[in-house]
Amino acid sequence: MSMRKILIVFAIAWLVAITSVHAWLNLYLFDSRGAATTDHKKFRIGFLPVTCHLDSPGYLEKRDRIFQLMGMSLRVGETAA
């Protein structure tokens, strides 16, 4: 077989393998109870710390104090007075 045919066969086999694993893990297609049952494992989200509070007053006060201690201004290119 030529290299091109080998790569095509490999790509198709890889696609079939990944699709099968996805169907088994996420879609429950190979489950003995069938895909229509609703008693599958529940999707749970773990704790994620909030990192988007960059506009909270506490953060802004700390940021401004740090900038002043470093002699920096909030405006680009300026130094603190």
Order of helices and strands: HH
SS elements, strand count: 0
Alpha plus pi helix count: 2
Alpha carbon gap, first and last residue = 75 Å
The overall pLDDT, averaged over residues, is 79
Sheet bearing the most strands, described?
A: none
Instruction: Report low-confidence residues grouped into runs of 5 or more.
Output: none
Radius of gyration: 28 Å
Shape: elongated
Beta percentage is under 5%
Indicate how many domains the architecture comprises.
Answer: 2
Helix/sheet category: mainly alpha
Helix-residue proportion: 40-55%
Task: Briefly say what this structure is.
The chain has 81 residues and is mainly alpha-helical. The protein has two helices and no strands. The model has no long low-confidence stretch (mean pLDDT 79).
Structural features, described:
It is built from 2 helices and no strands. The chain is an all-alpha fold and 81 residues long. The model has no long low-confidence stretch (mean pLDDT 79).
